[in-house]
Amino acid sequence: MTPTSPLNDPFDLLDISSQVGEEERDIQATVRAFLDDHVRPHIADWFETATFPRELVPELGKLGVLGMHLTGYGCAGTSATAYGLACLELEAVDSGLRSFVSVQGSLAMYSIWRYGSEEQKQEWLPRLAAGEAIGCFGLTEPDHGSDPANMSTRAVRDGSDWILNGAKMWITNGGVADVATVWASTEEGIRGFLVPRGTPGFTTHDIKQKLSMRASVTSELSFADVRLPDSARLPEARSLGAPLGCLNEARFGILFGALGAGRDSLQAALRYADSRIQFDRPISGFQLTQRKLADMAVSLNTGMLLSLHLAKLKEAGRIRPEQISIGKLNNVRAALDVARECRTILGANGISLEYAPLRHANNLESVLTYEGTEEIHTLVVGQALTGQSAFR
């Protein structure tokens, strides 16, 4: 049988690009080209040295990816599909980079855009969109990850001010953020507050010795009698539903982004399998290797079709939280399995940072956990199916 030409992109199997509009394809191509030029040549070194390239942030602002799915205040106002495809390209380089963009745009910026006052929006959103300022999102606590309703961080009224005490853990961008959206329990329920860096009593401590997300800043936030004016409170955030709404925005980016890590891993394995000669032939010609490659391609293409379907639901204003949970649950699982399997095709070379799959797999271990663990999303889907909550 005459060999056929290999595909450049695993998603070409189902001609998935034909399901995307021209403007969205152009945005995706622009983001990919920028990353290929400015980030991909350096990412392995940044991962090895646990370096977050802060100088890249204004460039991401110029690229227009910070809060790109929001409207006004310097934001690009793109479609959900365009945002998802940008996240895919970002995570194809490294999950830490996509995580920065997700936290900046879908958590820090979205919390202000959706729940903030006009004064708060004018003060922060243009700077955050331009990459002139960095934001973070303080919800997870050392003892309260999957159960934020029982958070220990508390804000109490003191005259016209608030006094904030507590701690947040595993906060992406925390150590470099200029402003933190912090969620706290109050006598009136859970409320959000904007806490600028330098506010007395507000300190951060970066988490070191990470085996995952090494090119990303992860921090603990501490609040000791932090005095805030009432103008720091997000006026439209009146319950736990507010931070959970922000998380759904970020999870949407993740369900696209994880597929980028999977695609990059599969492309690395395809290139390697075609060039690695064993028993006088490329290993890409062996049946066991082809089965691995075919299974991975089917999994990623299925995940991509799911993502595009969810994007259409989001653009129509019809997406539900359990549908986002299905996307994150399926696609992160798939991408992690693909990255691990690709490492096996690379053999011993797969443990080297010269090749991306094991770096992607390490990062995806964090993606599987944050913004809703695999277990939590499983229970969200289970509750949607049965009408019964298994959380308590």
Automatic annotation (TrEMBL):
User: What InterPro entries does this protein map onto?
Assistant: Acyl-CoA_Oxase/DH_mid-dom, Acyl-CoA_Oxase/DH_mid-dom_sf, AcylCo_DH-like_C, AcylCo_DH/oxidase_C, AcylCoA_DH/ox_N, AcylCoA_DH/ox_N_sf, AcylCoA_DH/oxidase_NM_dom_sf, Glutaryl-CoA_DH_mitochondrial
Cofactors needed by this protein, per the record, are:
FAD
Highest taxon of source: Bacteria
Keyword Flavoprotein among record annotations:
yes
Q: Provide the alphabetized UniProt keywords.
A: FAD, Flavoprotein, Oxidoreductase, Transit peptide
The Acyl-CoA dehydrogenase/oxidase C-terminal domain covers 244-385
Looking at the record, the residues that make up the Acyl-CoA dehydrogenase/oxidase N-terminal domain are 22-132
Any coiled-coil regions, as ranges: none
The record's Gene Ontology biological-process terms are:
fatty acid beta-oxidation using acyl-CoA dehydrogenase; fatty-acyl-CoA biosynthetic process
Any one GO MF term held by the record is: glutaryl-CoA dehydrogenase activity
Q: Which Gene3D superfamilies match?
A: Acyl-CoA dehydrogenase/oxidase, N-terminal domain, Butyryl-CoA Dehydrogenase, subunit A, domain 2, Butyryl-CoA Dehydrogenase, subunit A, domain 3
Key word Oxidoreductase present: yes
Domain (Acyl-CoA oxidase/dehydrogenase middle) spans 136-226
- PANTHER family noted in UniProt: GLUTARYL-COA DEHYDROGENASE, MITOCHONDRIAL
Protein family according to the UniProt entry: Belongs to the acyl-CoA dehydrogenase family.
For this entry, the protein name equals Acyl-CoA dehydrogenase family protein
